[in-house]
Amino acid sequence: MADDGLFPRRLGIDTYQEPVAYLRQDSPVCRAEGFNAQSRVRVSCGGRSVIATLNTIRSDLLAPTEAGLSEAAWRLLRPAPDERLCFSHPRPVESMSDVRGKLYGRPLEEAAARRIIRDIHEGRYADIELAAYVTACAGSRLDLAEITALTRAMVDAGDRLDWGRPRVMDKHCVGGLPGNRTTPIVVPIVASAGLLMPKTSSRAITSPAGTADTMATLAPVDLDTRGMRRVVEQEGGCIVWGGSVSLSPVDDTIIRVERALDLDSEGQLVASILSKKVAAGSTHVLVDMPVGPTAKVRNPEMAQRLEHHLVATGEAMGLAVRVHTSDGVQAVGRGIGPALEARDILAVLQNREDAPGDLRERALVLAGEILELGGVAAPGEGLAQAGESLASGRAWDKFRAICEAQGGLREPPVARHRHTVVAMHHGTVAHMNTRSIAKLAKLAGAPADPAAGLVLAVRLGDRVEPGAPLFTVHAESRGSLEYALDFLANHPECLSVEEDLI
């Protein structure tokens, strides 16, 4: 073994965002430092360091002189061929006492929130400690003061943009509604009216598509801060992936564990949304909140609480926040999946006759509210102004210009395999489980396969005849298509037709 450390080896193991290091159990480093499996270790090389979870190996996969790195750890350390890895013990995670205090009912004061967010940002929390933090905040356990403290701490942990404008517009959808891809329609309408709208969007975590996934089938979205600023200064707006700019980076780490645990925190949701808006330099934000039995916000009572916290926390952070409550009973548009949603967006922007009317109307309502919030449309006149921008072609021209500035407009891909599901009897489309619909699209391959997903042929209340198409599943491989259809056979609640009684 080299005196100055171990030889780095890239093992190609995807551990998502969690850095993981691998050592032989009989490694001299393990013996000398007392490391065991699941120990937290500091790995350093070339002046860079990361805190990782240690996995130990009992086979010859690694030599005693080697240390393996997961993909996440390798990206963070970027070891050069002549560099060696050094291992040491990280300092104790002192903010865990604040997490334990919250678990036992002690409020999170601002200093405690800063300590927790700082340690998460620095990678000091193992997943089990992150799980404890998420559990401590779950449900409605955070009050307004705690939400504001966490929001401020999350903003301060990342970069913050300043556009030098008194009004910088933004929007966010709380989520839970497949196909509700209004952002690529709203941004060009707002930007063509002279307002600034630098939109950072997320990729899917558990859904069939995020806005960034859909937009990526139309134009590059992996712009850094400099590239984002160039596009916005040139066109007045952009639609880029938030992960390529360091805005509220702690949020992505927390969301990863929330999703794994299937735990929702209303307060953490507010901090997540608003920390990214503040960091992006926004001054005025419209939040779209779909409410429905299978949406993320399931009832009016939860919607009312969230609206109060969003508006009040926004005010404390210097943001003007408006909440728009929308119908979350069924999926929006026809396509569910990145490329299929992109085709709906193009149809709306190009004013085609086959454009999904519900997506068009939702986007126009939201754009109209933002135009009013931004002061370029009088109260009550925003919807008409947004509609004129779309009908005249100005929105389409601006969208194309934004895509060209981001790297060029392209055609969404088309899946190789399709299967159409048809009605078995006369009747009325009576129920749509949006969660099951989303899962079906994911099992077909979305969003990893951008062309995968499904296309709806009906809406709630539609009358159908035997053999009429209900939806078509799109997949890149035969295996993915069959996997999705197997799920559908056991989950008929995805979309049900109430049979006529004769």
From TrEMBL:
<dbReference type="GO" id="GO:0004645">
    <property type="term" value="F:1,4-alpha-oligoglucan phosphorylase activity"/>
</dbReference>
<dbReference type="InterPro" id="IPR000053">
    <property type="entry name" value="Thymidine/pyrmidine_PPase"/>
</dbReference>
<dbReference type="Pfam" id="PF07831">
    <property type="entry name" value="PYNP_C"/>
</dbReference>
<dbReference type="InterPro" id="IPR035902">
    <property type="entry name" value="Nuc_phospho_transferase"/>
</dbReference>
<dbReference type="InterPro" id="IPR013466">
    <property type="entry name" value="Thymidine/AMP_Pase"/>
</dbReference>
<dbReference type="Pfam" id="PF00591">
    <property type="entry name" value="Glycos_transf_3"/>
</dbReference>
<feature type="domain" description="Pyrimidine nucleoside phosphorylase C-terminal">
    <location>
        <begin position="428"/>
        <end position="495"/>
    </location>
</feature>
<comment type="similarity">
    <text>Belongs to the thymidine/pyrimidine-nucleoside phosphorylase family. Type 2 subfamily.</text>
</comment>
<dbReference type="InterPro" id="IPR036566">
    <property type="entry name" value="PYNP-like_C_sf"/>
</dbReference>
<dbReference type="Pfam" id="PF02885">
    <property type="entry name" value="Glycos_trans_3N"/>
</dbReference>
<dbReference type="InterPro" id="IPR017459">
    <property type="entry name" value="Glycosyl_Trfase_fam3_N_dom"/>
</dbReference>
<dbReference type="InterPro" id="IPR028579">
    <property type="entry name" value="Thym_Pase_Put"/>
</dbReference>
<protein>
    <recommendedName>
        <fullName>Putative thymidine phosphorylase</fullName>
        <ecNumber>2.4.2.4</ecNumber>
    </recommendedName>
</protein>
<keyword id="KW-0808">Transferase</keyword>
<dbReference type="InterPro" id="IPR013102">
    <property type="entry name" value="PYNP_C"/>
</dbReference>
<dbReference type="GO" id="GO:0005829">
    <property type="term" value="C:cytosol"/>
</dbReference>
<dbReference type="InterPro" id="IPR000312">
    <property type="entry name" value="Glycosyl_Trfase_fam3"/>
</dbReference>
<dbReference type="InterPro" id="IPR036320">
    <property type="entry name" value="Glycosyl_Trfase_fam3_N_dom_sf"/>
</dbReference>
<keyword id="KW-0328">Glycosyltransferase</keyword>
<dbReference type="GO" id="GO:0006206">
    <property type="term" value="P:pyrimidine nucleobase metabolic process"/>
</dbReference>
<dbReference type="GO" id="GO:0006213">
    <property type="term" value="P:pyrimidine nucleoside metabolic process"/>
</dbReference>
<dbReference type="GO" id="GO:0009032">
    <property type="term" value="F:thymidine phosphorylase activity"/>
</dbReference>
